[in-house]
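Module 6 notes. Inverse folding takes a fixed backbone as the condition and produces residue identities as the prediction. Think of it as a translation problem where the source language is geometry and the target language is the twenty amino acids. Below is one complete input and output pair. Work through it position by position during the lab.
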């Protein structure tokens, strides 16, 4: 086993947290991730349902595109150093990273995913037509 420098691990955790919270654009995240490996014997950070809900909401608010959402999920899906709060969280990342299997990412699909993640409140997230 290779012993890793604690400073390197701190940098790696910072990069992974930037990814989990989508703190930079996709190209910057890819560049940052290229500086660290993707194989890991331990999970350095964890992803929660709330993390995904926040990112899905940003896509609905048009702060990130649906394509960027898919790319973000793909970057997370292949990581061994990112853990998941539960199976539902991990499954949602897989769905977001594979829209050709689960349906094109658009407003309707993202709303459906939000409701799936937030089982406690029924259909809390709906498409609302605003009269102009």
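Target side of the pair, the amino acids:
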């Amino acid at each position: 086993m290779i012993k890793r420098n604690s400073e390197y691990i701190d940098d790696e955790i910072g990069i992974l947290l930037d990814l989990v919270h989508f703190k930079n654009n996709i190209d910057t995240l890819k560049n940052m991730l290229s500086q660290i490996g993707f194989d890991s014997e331990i999970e350095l950070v964890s992803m929660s349902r709330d993390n995904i809900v926040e990112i899905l909401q940003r896509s609905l608010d048009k702060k990130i595109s649906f394509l960027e959402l898919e790319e973000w999920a793909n970057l997370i899906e292949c990581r061994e150093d990112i853990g998941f709060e539960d199976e539902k969280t991990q499954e949602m990342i897989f769905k977001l990273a594979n829209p050709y299997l689960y349906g094109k990412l658009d407003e309707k699909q993202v709303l459906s995913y939000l409701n799936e993640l937030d089982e406690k409140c029924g259909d809390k997230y709906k498409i609302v037509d605003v009269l102009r």
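Reference fact for the lab report: The helical segments are 6-20, 26-33, 49-60, 66-77, 87-97, 99-102, 107-117.
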